[in-house]
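Continuing the batch. This is chain 6 of the set; chains 1 through 5 are on the previous pages. Same settings as before, nothing changed between runs. Recording input and output for traceability.
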Amino acid sequence: MGSQKGMLMQNTLVKGAKANGFFGQGFFFVLPGLIGFCVFFIFPFCLSLVYAFMDKPVGGSFAGFANFRSLFVNRAYLRGLLNTIRFIGISTPLNWFFHWRLQCW
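Output for chain 6:
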């Protein structure tokens, strides 16, 4: 008797899943987050890629890799890049060391 009830419940769940298909109720719960992710992350990311290859953001023309070439010959940028690499190279191992040292203490 108990197995018949379980079988009936299982058949009902399978039929419900097939009836709802891919766009079942769960999809509509995820939809607001998915829309926000696309609007606030995917769209700006793609737009920044387009701007990276333009000579100016409004009314500009395609510049190709000229923006990146000029970036890597700029002394101020290279100094900032070197400082960032040094900071990461020093602070990251120190943070790991002190984290594990205090964790075990």
